[in-house]
UniProtKB/TrEMBL annotation:
It comes from Marinomonas ostreistagni. The lineage of its organism: Bacteria, Pseudomonadati, Pseudomonadota, Gammaproteobacteria, Oceanospirillales. It holds the Pfam family STAS_2. Residues 1-99 form the STAS domain. It comes from the Bacteria. InterPro entries: MlaB-like_STAS, STAS_dom, STAS_dom_sf. This is STAS domain-containing protein.
Amino acid sequence: MTDTIEITLPEKFTYDDYAWFFEASHRAMTQTDRVELNCCRVSYLDSAALGMIAYLHKQLKARGSKELIITQPTGYCEEIFQIANMYTHYVKKDSPSVH
């Protein structure tokens, strides 16, 4: 089993990405205990996207204490995740290593 699978979210992450995200997240769940969502390109996401992320978290937990990590969130993405309490309830924010 792979340590981490990274899914890079598109610039505009919306309901239109459901099929793609469902496939990528399902594949990741079967291969790892830790899924990272790379948000470096996200300039827009809608409530359906937040719902898809929350659902992925639920599915990972159902498979046994698997982690969902957010990496490289854009300022926009960071603000939306804070407002929607995503860090409190669903995802962890990756902490950059201090050297």
